[in-house]
Amino acid sequence: MPIDPKIALGAELAPQEFSWTPSDVQHYHLALGAGARPLDPNELRYLDDEKPQVLPTFATVAANFHATEAPKVSFPGVEIDLAKVVHGSQEVTVHQPIPASGSGRTTTRIAEVWDKGKAAVIVQESVTVDAEGNPLWTARSSIFARGEGGFGGERGPSESITLPDREADETVVTPVLPQQALLYRMCGDRNPLHSDPQFASAAGFPAPILHGLCTYGMVCKTAVDTMLDGDSSRVAGFRARFAGVVFPGENLSIQIWKDNGRLLISASVLEREAPALADVVLTLV
Predict the structure, then answer these.
(1) Is 189 a catalytic residue?
(2) Nearest partner of 98 among 158, 56, 46, 148, judged by Cα
(3) CA distance 93 to 86
(4) pLDDT, tens only, 161-188
(5) Dihedral sign (CA 183, 41, 256, 281)
(6) Mind listing the domains of the chain with CATH numbers?
(7) From 194, 211, 225, 279, the catalytic residue
(8) DSSP code, position 3
(9) Is 13 helix (H, G, I), strand (E, B) or coil?
(10) Which of 19-28, 160-169, 201-210 ranks highest by mean pLDDT?
(11) Which residues contact 42 (CB under 8 A, 6 or more apart)?
């Protein structure tokens, strides 16, 4: 049985110890499209050689930044073919601005396992501290495993966000470079779904798709640049549900609403009028 919720639920994964440098941060930001405005001082803050400002979404890649092999979906009580898995949601809460360089230790547990009938959703919760034990960030992520439901578990709650019934305060079109997925995979996510046309076809896609976490980071950066004067230290948290696929070469239409100390965001693919991210919330410090 690929999923045994009795074993999986609450299981702790092996701790990860890692470090990062300003070059890693620069690389991550470039993979999100940073540098498109090379004369803009706010844009260049992402690419400073010594102390680049760090988007909070860097937390999603920091521990595995230098990985060179495709990930495996193999946890206690969980064994799933990678081709069946897509990212479901992601949330990051930063407890202080992420430094341009440092070291961390991440502990992860399987927090929830939901049975959606034809699919399963597995939620992981991770806590990362620095070398002195001070909290850096907490992350929650879910994966959606097609064909792995039906084991008799609960369906889980809905966390949908209702957008304001008015025009967005800002609408921004952010281009996805044709090579965006190939750039982003160098941040440690070597899943061939994002680079290998044959693998993508076997998984049911006409071409390799953009990493959901790349879309996640691009939308966060767009919101910071548009609404926060390019100051990532004003972000306390960022969460989103992955609502559809994005292909390299497309454009993201990003709508942003101010809402009582937070930003509510919707992101779709401009060319296909198809959803990309939903239930997106950026919380402010």
Answers:
(1) yes
(2) 56
(3) 22
(4) 899 999 999 999 999 999 999 999 999 9
(5) positive
(6) 3-282 (3.10.129.10)
(7) 194
(8) B
(9) coil
(10) 19-28
(11) 225, 229, 230
pLDDT tens per residue across span 107-160? 999 888 888 777 788 899 999 999 999 999 999 999 887 766 767 677 777 778
3-state secondary structure of 84: helix
Burial class (CB in 10 A: 0-12, 13-18, 19+), 103: middle
Question: How far apart are the C-alpha atoms of 72 and 119, rounded to whole Å?
Answer: 18
Q: Residue 179's pLDDT is what?
A: 97
Is residue 194 annotated as part of the catalytic site, yes or no? yes
Tokens standing for residue 174: 């952010």
**Are 22 and 48 within 8 A, CB to CB?**
yes
Residue with tokens 């994966």: 143
The active-site residue out of 24, 115, 189, 225 is 189
pTM: 0.91
CB contact burial 128-163 (16+ within 10 A = b; e otherwise):
bbbeeeeebbbbbbbbbbbebbeeebeeeeeeeeeb
Q: Is 258 exposed, middle or buried (0-12, 13-18, 19+ CB in 10 A)?
A: middle
Longest CA–CA span in the chain (Å) reads 56
Q: How many CB atoms lie within 10 A of CB 36?
A: 12
